Amino acid sequence: MLIPQEFIRKKRDNQPLSKEEIAQFIHGVTDGSVANEHISAFAMAVYFNGMSLDEKTALTLAMRDSGESLRWDLDGPVVDKHSTGGVGDVVSLMLGPMLAACGAYVPMISGRGLGHTGGTLDKFESIPGYNVLPDNAHFREVVKECGVAIIGQTSALAPADKRIYSIRDVTATVESIPMISASILSKKLAEGLDTLIMDVKVGSGAFMPTYALSKELAQSIVEIANAAGVKTQALLTDMNQSLACNAGNALEVKEAVAYLIGKHRDPRLHRVTMALSRAALLSTGLAGSEIEADTMLERSLSSGKALEIFGKMVSMLGGPSDFCDRYEAYLPQAAVIAPVFPLERGVVASMDLIAIGMSVVGLGGGRIRPIDAIDHSVGLEKIVHIGDRVDKQTPLCIVHAKDQESFHEAQKRIQRAVQIGDTPIETQEIYETIG
Ligand code: URA
What we know:
Elements: H1 4-12, H2 19-31, H3 36-49, H4 53-64, E1 79-83, H5 91-101, E2 106-110, H6 120-124, H7 136-146, E3 148-152, H8 159-169, H9 177-189, E4 195-202, H10 211-227, E5 231-238, H11 249-261, H12 267-284, H13 290-302, H14 305-316, H15 327-330, E6 336-340, E7 346-351, H16 353-365, E8 379-381, E9 389-390, E10 397-401, H17 404-417, E11 418-421, E12 430-434
Parallel strand pairs: 1-4, 2-3, 4-5
Antiparallel strand pairs: 5-12, 6-10, 7-9, 7-11, 8-10
Helix pairs in contact: 1-3, 2-4, 2-8, 4-9, 4-10, 5-12, 5-14, 9-10, 12-13, 16-17
The structure holds uracil.
Residues 165, 174, 179-180, 183-184 line the site of uracil.
């Protein structure tokens, strides 16, 4: 029998932990025989001493095996994309149907937004009737029929992660690359994937505070997932500004549908969506070259197939059957819609993207605590890009708010968050690919 304090002492003293010891500890986390004190001390020891690849892989697999894992028997590769999150990161809503249109199956189990970041699940909940927690049989049916189903995490998926994460959250141990890698991958690997594409964000709105740490996280995730038998690549992409033109749940869904229809396709968002989708098609072998992948993806859009798949998924998960035809009428609308102008004229030099994300939270579009309810209608529309010229007639964005008071609060935050100057910081959509 494992004695938790002996296990913790080993990590504290930098001695290697065996696969069996890690599995027993995580078993104890799941059945309750390991106490909160043990988990917090272990997390702190890992925070300071790190973990070898063998230890990280063993931790990830033990956490994955603390709950259910999906198994598929489909006539195409099973693939998913996961992002470390940010503002206006609406890629999943288009990428899922686009990959499905190209012959992949995408069982995407997504999360809610927390802190300044948006969550895919919250975005889907702005669609009336959409059920983010279907039972397992229905989830499988939607994946089989549509090629994609985007749903939420049930308590059956990696329950050890749920417990460990809630303790890390209150013991200053979230910022540990081995723990973050194991936490993300325990849930993703339980989806039964052949291929995973990771989108690790870099910049002022990224989860990791520096480029070097984002890269270290990407490398760690790629190494562990490949060691666990899931072909994985990571792209380091920009989060110094909102990825989409809109940030906020219903507003992002609106932008995603407009993208699929071809009504409005922001070039930055398109480049990142294409890069992640291309990586998935190449990794699964559905495309043999970048040119072939791009042709397949462009065809999925121009033929209307990706749009049709999105509409079918929405309908099968309880949303309106004519959602894509009447999405603007179905999505909730805020009472106050008004522009925010800069305090001075000039070029948008940089943005404090955490503050921009928090302005959406302040409007009611995100949560301070996981249990908080959110207002799907609020957010920011037509957000300026770094390098854009602005003046007292050119707005920084259009705010959608529930009332004048919250509009004014958001206005102040946004005006403070956008730095006007002469020289914009240099950004590019995709920095590098790992793996
Ligand atoms: N997201 C997760 O799922 N886990 C972490 O530890 C950090 C981000």
